[in-house]
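Hi V.,

You were right to ask for the full record rather than a summary. Here it is.
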Amino acid sequence: MDLTGADWRKSSHGSEEDGSCIEVAVVPGSKEGSDYVIAMRNGKDPDGPTLIFTPDEWRAFTAGVQDGEFDLA
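Predicted structure:
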């Protein structure tokens, strides 16, 4: 998927000093029949891997984050 020109938004919970934050962009594209996808990457490594979510996958992921499903402690 071509992410050239994507409008990346930085998380407000990251650190500007060392670039350790998550960046998210909504981009046109198709995955499982959707008209757009949500891309997420590590702001410290913008050329590294990118996760691609459908709108339904994104809603499930963010709901899991809010419910503490991914908490390490």
